[in-house]
Amino acid sequence: MSGFEWIVPVVLTVITAATPLVFAGIGELITEKSGVLNLGVEGMMLVGAVSGFIAATVTGNYFLAVGAAALAGAIMAFLFGVLTLSLMANQVATGLALTLFGVGLSALMGQEFVGEPVQALAKLDIAGLSDIPFIGPIVFGQDALVYLSFFMVIVVSWFLYKTKGGLILRAVGDSHDAAHSIGYPVIAIRYMAVMFGGAMSGIGGAYLSLAYTPMWAENMTAGRGWIALALIVFATWKPGLVLVGAYMFGGITILQLHAQAAGLNVPSQVLSMLPYLATVLVLVLISKDQSRIRKHAPACIGKIFHPAA
């Protein structure tokens, strides 16, 4: 391509790579703001991906498909909530188990659909706007889930910092004992936060199987759930920075794909590692500033709440 024509397809691919990270990241942000650490994002994304794909294949209705993915992710998160909030199991161990369970369950559910293609989620096409050079296809030519991801970032930011409900959620995450002492139902609030996080992870998974690569393949999340978890620390638990981080990691993912296509004399395995190496590097750099993490992280994250204490 001549001139700057190459920019549009690159930006479009970055958007598709970043969108599932936005959904998973913004959902986990709410979960962690309530004081719960759910490491099962990868498993919830996989179950959401296969559930959305099966629903789209069977019904042909993509609205139902996205709803099925959100419901599947929420059910997985509810299971995590029962184990950690009601039965008081260790959150880290349970989250890891949830990921392993999601990997196996999604493979079982999707064994008859492996490699079967489905029509990709339709792109928005506004006459006169989508045809505007450069801006048109980027701003007005996306599918509905891309716009929903931006909308959810705005809604979550508004909820957390402009509403009483958001204030209560942050209070529960910062001091569950104090919130309980003034009458707030800590466990119920955390259940809702955890299930919201699961629903968002499920939608992020559905984006992979319905839009990014419209087909089902086992383990198709390829570690994106772990990247989403790293995004929360990178963003210091702020919704706007989750969006920025998702697009940064999405850009790195696309960079390695373009590097492979350009035929660089670098082993493809090394290039494929770039997004994950970037994740580790970012976490190492951030971990050096412990005061910054302590300042923004919910004080009760990962801690078990004992109502009778």
UniProtKB/TrEMBL annotation:
GO terms for molecular function: transmembrane transporter activity. It is a multi-pass membrane protein. Its main location: membrane. Keywords: Cell membrane, Membrane, Transmembrane, Transmembrane helix. It holds the Pfam family BPD_transp_2. It comes from the Bacteria. The keyword Transmembrane applies. The keyword rRNA processing does not apply. CDD domains: TM_PBP1_transp_TpRbsC_like. The chain crosses the membrane at residues 6-24, 36-56, 62-85, 92-109, 144-161, 266-286. GO terms for cellular component: plasma membrane. It is found in: Cell membrane. This is ABC transporter permease. It comes from Sneathiella chungangensis.
